[in-house]
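Feature request disguised as a bug: please show the residue count (201) next to Maleylacetoacetate isomerase in the output. Example input:
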Amino acid sequence: MKLCSFRNSSASRRVRIATALKGASLDIVEVDLSAGEQLSHEYRSVNPQGLVPALITNDGLVITQSLAIMAWLDAKFPKPVLLGLTQACRVKILEFVSVVGCDVHPLQGLRLSRWLDQAGSPPEAFSVIARRAISDGLATCEHLVHGGTTRFCFSNEPSAADIWLIPQLNNARRFGVDLTTYPRLVGIEQSCLALAAFRDP
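Example output, currently without the count:
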């Protein structure tokens, strides 16, 4: 398998963590977003959206969204299960990753920064928006896992929720978000980082 990835991309890191957890072999093709390589004709022939990640399977299937990639990985490499062993667990995981992936992620990325610049917004606008989105999203995620006693978000084994969490906490720190109000999330982070798959794969 090949993964078109950018080192600092949260969505790419999710896939790198997931494949590491599953012990799947992966060749990384670096796409430098800061240099605009994702906008090239060559890369758009792989992913017309011009985003990372893009997973190219051994039989030529191209999958371009991290949650879709996660579903494929669970089907192809059944252990560990990342999207939940039970329906109840699965829906909680999907709820969690949707908060991070749909509500927070689009408001902290390079595309929004460029769009704001093009619209003539003040330089600080992007950071203000990103910090607000991250703070609100993490507050929701903290609520979703509050009161739990498991090592990870929803069980004693890592799931997609944990995979979405770790890169997001990195982004929170990058934007200067105070994490002291999210103690359960920070505790889960420590459990994750005890596993090699989560340590900057």
